Prior knowledge:
Blueprint: H1 14-62, H2 70-73, E1 76-77, E2 83-84, E3 90-94, E4 100-106, E5 109-114, E6 126-135, E7 138-144, H3 146-158, E8 165-166
Parallel strand pairs: 6-8
Antiparallel strand pairs: 1-2, 3-4, 4-5, 5-6, 6-7
Amino acid sequence: MIMGSQHTSKGFSLIEAMVAVGVAGVLAAVGLPWYGDSVRKSKVAEGVTLASPTKAKISGELMGLDRVPSAVYGCSMDANGNLVCPIPWQLIASNPSKNVSAIMRVGNSVIVNYSAELAGADGTLYSLLWTGTQTPAGVNWECLADAAASAQLSSLQGGTVPVQTALPAKWAPKQCRTS
């Protein structure tokens, strides 16, 4: 009688190990881009937060709670209730954080310029634009990103305001996305 040897397997086979590595690779391929976008969104949120005091100041001016800052900005109200400022723009904060290079005011708009920390793969620097409009219910703030902001940012740039490329919609806050 021939006795068979009893062989007990300890560990993983090569196929099992390859399947595990393949699954980990797929998860990494899906997760890393999502993680990168999430990190960029948090950096954008920091800029939105840093712009809030300037937005509040403009809201107060539009609603008549603050006097129109004619002595500081040279601004006045036009017939439609919009702020008109003879100086093209004002720097509110320079390098307030490592993610934000500047916060600027242009009339009743606030521009957040982001630093190289948020730059695209090609080194493109981005801006986010907020514009306040007086309504019967208060002040409505419109945030523009991507193509919707490009035309307005270009017109400001033509007026020597140091703006950058419009922030891509995928990184912008939800209220800034037009689609």
